[in-house]
Amino acid sequence: MAQIVEISDVEDPRVDDFRDLSRADRRPDRPGGRGLVIAEGVVVVERLLASPYPVRALLGVRRRVEELAEATADVDVPAYVASAEVMAEIVGFHLNRGVLAVADRAPVVEPAELISRSRRLAVLEGIGDHENLGVLFRNAAALGLDGMLLGAGCSDPLYRRSVRVSMGHVLRVPFAQLEAWPGDLKMLRDNGFRVAALTPRAGSKSLRDADLDRGKVAALLGSEGPGLTDEAIDAADLAVRIPMSDDVDSLNVATAGAITFHAMSGA
Predict the structure, then answer these.
(1) Which domains does the chain have, with CATH numbers?
(2) How many CA atoms lie within 13 A of 3 on its CB side?
(3) In angstroms, rounded to a whole number, what is the distance separating the alpha carbons of residues 42 and 79?
(4) Which end of the chain is more exposed for a tag (fewer CB within 10 A), N or C?
(5) Which band of pLDDT confidence, cut at 50, 70 and 90, is reported for residue 24?
(6) Torsion on CA atoms 161, 164, 170, 176, rounded to nearest 10
(7) Cα–Cα distance between 80 and 78 in angstroms, integer?
(8) Is the link from the previous residue into 111 a cis peptide, with omega within 30 of 0?
(9) pTM of this structure
(10) The tRNA/rRNA methyltransferase SpoU type domain covers which part of the protein (predicted)?
(11) Between helices 130-142 and 253-265, what is the axis angle to 10°?
């Protein structure tokens, strides 16, 4: 079980993984940092503990760490306990959720492997906003997608904010990076997928008529503002639009994703 360790010295090197998270150049989950996965709050920490990501340590106030007793019963890692004040000095801000956990990254999933074992996928292009990315992963988990493929311009799903906004579901939805964009979409077609590009452009088929709940389908979603590039749309099998009022031209990408994923489920 987790080993409870009292921390009273803010300079204690044992909690360096958690130090100064408010400073962008020091956060271990930032590009150029140490690449650690950081979970915040009891629910998200529980999901990290149940995930393939090897947990290194926990840090929290005693009450929150004790709430995780069952989840940490079979985990041999240190659980550092500190006062809220000491924890705030270590982390760099007051953490309302009261507990953090850090983990190493799991082995990378290859796109071909993820595609071969899936029937319903989301493919993302240019999703650089960490909150939108986190919500998309949460939606994908809720609506039964098999995984996510990340195309050009996507941010890191394991960035701390994405993990938090996804409520930890980014840790359970498999994802893979497509290196050649949009050429790698051919892998989907070679495995029997239809690729449906979500776009409001004229001539797109209504989502109601696109039959996305039949066969293997990959929904292609683009960034806020510009949406999908012409190259990505042209590489898809069909263009699909979500019907909406004439005075609204688009939806938030996470909202559009949720509507599309629901259509793919056939529910």
Answers:
(1) 3-103 (3.30.1330.30), 111-265 (3.40.1280.10)
(2) 7
(3) 13
(4) C
(5) low
(6) 10
(7) 6
(8) no
(9) 0.92
(10) 122-261
(11) 10
The mean per-residue pLDDT over the stretch 74-102 comes to 94
For 165-201, b/e burial (b = at least 16 CB within 10 A) is bbbbbbbebbbbbbeebbebbebbeebebbbbbbbbe
Measured torsion, CA atoms of residues 206, 210, 211, 216, in degrees rounded to the nearest 10 = -140
| Structure token digits, residue 140 | 């994908």
One-letter amino acid of 232: A
